[in-house]
Design brief:
mainly alpha, 87% helix, globular, disordered C terminus
Length: 337
């Protein structure tokens, strides 16, 4: 393990933030281009949907109130609800696409920083579509695991309501269930974020394999990663609350514009910084478990994204032939000895 890996091994809470900030500053040109291409549209989409959702919910409430007093059928209200959910679904799809593209671009860039591999924004744009496929598969597995976890919690709530109910003991159990659910949900979210990094940087690990590898990497650094995740979530909700109070519900145009721009800038930085941090955490966890970061092999893996599939398969075949020949030579040496 070289000196750089030893430094990563002992990075703690503040050290990870310092390392991430140093990477962003040293590669500010590339990260600025990534931010303008992926993270800025992601942040704008997120803030705009808050206004759109608020407007649609207000309109649904007005239609419901008018229909209630007129005694009319709620066919019009159903169409309003359908419009609301269609917009929500479209928003979630675009949000997911931009989020996965941002993750792929940032993780690839940070990895190039650690390998010393020269990188340009043009290369990133050519690599991201290939990396994005692996990250998407990992996201699908993460979504299914989160869904199964939520259904199990729902089943536990149903059993609690049927067997215990709102007694003094039942309320205490209810709070215990909520705390356990929250802790488990946070842990699964951290696993998914680290699995996204694994999907980009490790050739054979994506999907469920990336999730398993992520669980193994987090062991020993669970407390630090949890604190970092919770801090980023607190910043996220802080920005959200400020935006809703002073931009969505404010009647002052100047305040709306000023706070809106401020929240947009903060949200962009938070998204970018969060993605860099989760990549740094990957390298920290690797070093902590004494898994040597093979920089030449990682650089070759990153370079392989530029190759077509036949070229990548040919490269794998050559590597397998070399391993096979080396194994045979070793066996022959043992025989002659």
């Amino acid at each position: 393990m070289d000196s750089d890996e030893e430094k990563l091994q002992y990075l703690g809470f503040l050290g990870i933030f310092k390392e991430s900030f140093k990477i962003v500053v040293s590669w500010k040109k590339i990260f600025t281009q990534i931010t303008l291409s992926f993270i800025l549209p992601l942040s704008i989409l997120f803030l705009v949907q808050i206004h759109v959702s608020e407007y649609l919910e207000r309109r649904i409430r007005f239609v419901r109130y008018r229909l209630y007093h007129r005694g009319d059928e709620d066919e019009y209200l159903s169409s309003e609800r359908l419009e609301y959910w269609l917009i929500k679904i479209a928003y979630l799809v675009f949000l997911l696409v931009l989020s996965l593209l941002s993750t792929s671009a940032v993780v690839y860039t940070v990895a190039c920083n650690y390998t010393g591999k020269p990188i340009t924004f043009k290369k990133i744009m050519s690599v991201v579509p290939k990396v994005w496929k692996r990250v998407t598969i990992t996201f699908i597995w993460s979504f299914l695991i989160h869904l199964a976890y939520s259904l199990c919690f729902l089943g536990a709530i149903v059993m609690w309501a049927m067997l215990i109910g709102f007694s003094s003991v039942g309320i205490a159990i209810w709070y215990v269930l909520l705390i356990l659910f929250f802790v488990g949900f946070v842990y699964l979210s951290i696993v998914w974020q680290l699995a996204s990094v694994v999907s980009v940087l490790e050739e054979e690990n994506y999907g469920i394999k990336a999730m398993v590898k992520s669980i193994n990497l987090i062991e020993g650094k669970r407390r630090v990663t949890s604190f970092i995740f919770l801090l980023l979530v607190l910043f996220y909700y802080g920005i959200l609350i400020v935006y809703q109070l002073f931009a969505v519900y404010s009647w002052n145009i100047g305040t709306m514009v000023g706070i809106g721009i401020l929240c947009l800038v903060l949200l962009m930085f938070l998204f970018l910084f969060g993605l860099v941090i989760q990549t740094v955490i990957y390298f920290v966890c690797k070093s902590y478990h004494c898994e040597s970061i093979d920089k030449p092999a990682l650089a070759n893996h990153l370079e392989a994204y530029f190759q077509s599939e036949p070229q990548r398969d040919a490269t794998k075949d050559v590597q397998l032939e070399q391993v096979h020949v080396a194994t045979k030579d070793a066996q022959l040496d043992q025989v002659y000895v």
